[in-house]
Amino acid sequence: MYKVYGDYNSGNCYKVKLMLNLLGVEYQWVPVDILGGETETPEFLEKNPNGKIPVLELEDGTCLWESNAILNFLADGSRYLPGEPRLRTQVLQWQFFEQYSHEPYIAVARFIQFYLGLPEERMAEYRKMQKVGYRALKVMEQQLTRTPFLVGDSFSIADIALFAYTHVAHQGGFDLEPYPGIRQWLTRVTQQPGYVGMLD
Questions:
Q1: Do 71 and 103 sit in the same domain of this protein?
Q2: Residues 87-143: pLDDT tens digits?
Q3: In terms of domains, do 38 and 67 share one?
Q4: I need a surface site. Which of 22, 62, 88, 138 has the fewest CB within 10 A?
Q5: For residue 110, what are the domain limits?
Q6: Is residue 198 a part of any domain in this protein?
Q7: Is the same domain home to 131 and 150?
Q8: Does the predicted model carry a pTM greater than 0.90?
Q9: Using an 8 Å Cβ cutoff, are 151 and 174 in contact?
């Protein structure tokens, strides 16, 4: 059985949880206290020397890390990862977008507000995250007004990758009301067979 080392409130960890539930794969969840320093212990660093969650531990003890890499591993051979090269590349395109243009802003704004309670010393950073985060939402909106999912008509791990932090963007102060394409897409994701919420 797989083991997932993570935090239920982490969007990156939620990607793995959601993927496993969509696939109907049994797993054991091992809670990790990020703020308590549990990712810096020698035991954890044996699993991921980068000291971050999530970590997926396979049955043979091999550990995989980086949430989008784990998604690709789990989805391989399933309907959630297209085999056709162009579509598969578009999935990767959105995953790279998520890690470079979305998560560093949407998730960090959420961390400052949801985890830290908007401390004054981080307000300038928070406002900057808001500005660039809205830019990422506009990119998503453009696509989602044209197609029901990020890669055409089919739900894929591209959607899982971006759903994770977008559906809790309000916890980082983002208003999704001006983005009807995104809001309708969020609903479509929750309607997928096997869907499970972040805190379910």
A1: no
A2: 999 999 999 999 999 999 999 999 999 999 999 999 999 999 999 999 999 999 999
A3: yes
A4: 62
A5: 85-190
A6: no
A7: yes
A8: yes
A9: no
